[in-house]
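Hey, I'm writing a tutorial for new members on how sequence and structure tokens pair up, and I'd like a real worked example in the thread rather than a made-up one. If someone can provide the structure for the chain below, I'll link this post from the tutorial.
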Amino acid sequence: MKATIVALFATSAQSVQMQMGVTSHARGNPIRKVVTMLQKIEAKVKEEGENEAELHEKAMCECKTGIAEYTQSISDGEAKVEQLAANLESGEEQLAQLKNDLVNHKSDREAAKDALAEALGMREKEAAAYGGVKSETEANMEAIGKAVGAIEKNAAASFLQSDAAGVLRNLVNSNQAMMADSRTEVLSFLSNTDGSEGSGEIVGVLKQLSDEMAADLKEATTAEEKAIANYDALTADKNAEVAELTKAIEDKITRVGEGGVAMADMKADAKDTADKLAEDKKFIVDLKAECEKKAKDWEAVKKERAAELLALADTIKMLNDDDALELFKKTLPSAAASFMQVSVSASTQKARALSMLHAAMKTGRPTRHIDLIAMVLHGKTADMTKVIKMIDEMVSVLGQEQKDDDEKKDYCNTEIDAAEDKLKADQLAIKDADTAIKDAKETIATLESEMIALTGGLLMLDKAVTEATAQRKKENEAFKVVKAGNAAASKLLGMAKDRLAQFYGFAQVAAAPTAFLQVRRTTEQKGNEGGGGVIAMLTALDAELEKETAVAQANEDDAQADYEKYMADSKTMRIDNGKILEDKTAAKADAEGALQGHQDVLEGAFTKMKGTNDQLKVLHKDCDWLLANFDSRKEARADEVDALGKAKAVLSGADLVQE
């Protein structure tokens, strides 16, 4: 409406100036056209008021819905923060238990190694003792054998001269179990140089002694063999225990490391959740403030519109006055050109389209370029074609996403059923490692999805910032054009007033509008000085131009403030999302490292099942989330497409005469 008034003022000023060159004989009455235009403007203002009232009600409804949604999001975030805190506490306890088990395993392994070393020392002592007994017994038995052989061959004398006789003598003297008579006989034999005395009895004693020694040696050998068997069994048991404890230690070390990484990731997730919760709380405060501002602005708009309608009604009444019409017939020139041009504002259509876009934002799929569309519609130079194109692109993307989901759902159902038929008996051979692999893969999939979303958000944010900057420049240029045009129109009105003053003989143009009653009285008294009414209208037009410039300046200041706030918020969001993306990248690298370690452990555990298991894992990682959220995603897209279609319909149906 204000742009229309600017055009009206400029056209009226030009019309008045052009008609100044026409002679008094060609004068007519153009005021009737002005009255008709003012009546159309009045009807248009009323219509816009009704439309904007409806849009305001919708905006207030959307405010309530948005506040409710963010309140729920905050509640969910607080619940997640509490759950993560509980998970962190549980994880800390599990990690402490793993560390305690690791200390116990190491202590048990050292005890097993000490037992092995002790058993080895004892075995060496027993082997040495047995070796000494065996060597001594065999030497003694050899000496006895030589003595018996010599006696039986009647060569006792030569035997008594040999070293074997000395060995036999020492044996007889040291053998405490030998009977005294037998010892005496043997020693007597060994002392007789010819060896002829009692040789028959000596042979019997020596053979009996040899048999006893052979029996003792056999018993010692059996004991030695049993000791060796016991040592081998003990060594095997302890080595197996050491190996098992070593494996348990390695497993616990791995799980302690993984637990530490998982705790770090959980802490990072808790921080990200807390940050998002803080952002949501800040956003809902801003949203409430914005909604309150909209309510206050609406009251101001209603007040301003009421004042505008009152001014229009007073003006129409003033111009329709019979005396005034008669006066204008005498004072104003007739011209074919119209006094004003009226153009219809696009504010109603823009507001309605903005409302439709707000509805699209409630579908649960946040897109920051919706904010950009709102900023574009906020500006005076909004390009409807560009906005419609952006909406078409969004609808096309949503349609392609739904098509992809439909195809993916069919593929997932078919492939998962086929893979599950192949896998009839799932062997849970390695529990801890298998669970860790599944957790790592789910973590990687989640991190990848979040990283993709964050990267896409950063790209869209950069694009939105660039487009917002370009839009701000266009709005500023448009403001400068309006300001310059108003200044030129004001100057032209001044020239017109000066020209009328010269024509009607006024010394100076009045600074304030002159009432029609005063004009009538002046006309009756002074004749041709009735032109003061026209000058008053021109003065009023000049005042409206000044008001228009002030309003344009206020709008420019508001738009600049909104732009600066948007830039600051975008910068903060980019820094925050960049930090989150770095954390997610580091967490993903840790998860991939842990996953590789688990896959190495499981590499030899199953061969035939590996292909089918890997296929199922990939399918579940790729499909579970889609299958679980397919219906809700489809419904959300349908709602969003419907809302965008309504916004596009509003914009496409705009029949505007834009300045």
